[in-house]
User: What shape does this take?
Amino acid sequence: MRLVTGPLAGGSARVDPRAMMDSQYLPIVVLLLGAIGFALAPLGLAWVWARAFSPQKSGPSKNAIYECGLEASGDSWVQFKPGYYLYAIVFLIFDVEAVFLLPVAVAFHGFGVGEAIAMLVFLLLLVEGLVWAFQKNVLVWT
Assistant: This one.
């Protein structure tokens, strides 16, 4: 970027716009403007679509909460045991790890010593997590 100083610049330094076109930062600026455009364009289009085509919500029955066609009754707070979340998280972790084991089982005959050790460490961590979950009674469904 070239700074222009002198009597035409008003005594202060300013950026020459022609130098900006030759700058190494121009691709970054263009990508930044593109990223901002991709983020804001769908929001703007959704807002325009809602203003142009969506019916207005008028009246208490139109603004009421609809859930399965039934009116809500009673308290909406329900106690939920956190053990269910732990059970689901443990299931998800072991399910994803089983997906990682499939390619290993397919390509097992071509392993070297390094790959075999890495896979044994992976299996050791898997078994260690299972032992931890069993010791903490996470797997007990009560």
